[in-house]
Amino acid sequence: MAALLVVGLLLPATAVASARPGPPSAAAFERATRDLLRAGTLDGPAAARSGGVGTGPVAGGAAGGELFPRKRLLTMYGAPQLGSTILGRLGPGAAARKAVKQARPYARAGDRRVIPGFDLIAVVANSTPGPDGEYRTRQPNRLIRTYLREARSIGGRLVLDIQPGRARVSDEIEALEQWIDEPDVDVSIDPEWAVGPRGVPGRTMGKIKAKEINRVSRRLQRTIDRNDLPPKALVIHQFHSGSVRRPRDIVQRRDVDVTLNFDGIGSPAAKKAGYRALSRRALFNGFSIFYTLDTKVMGPRSVLGLEPEVDFLLFQ
Question: Domain 3-315 classified CATH 3.20.20?
Answer without folding.
Answer: yes
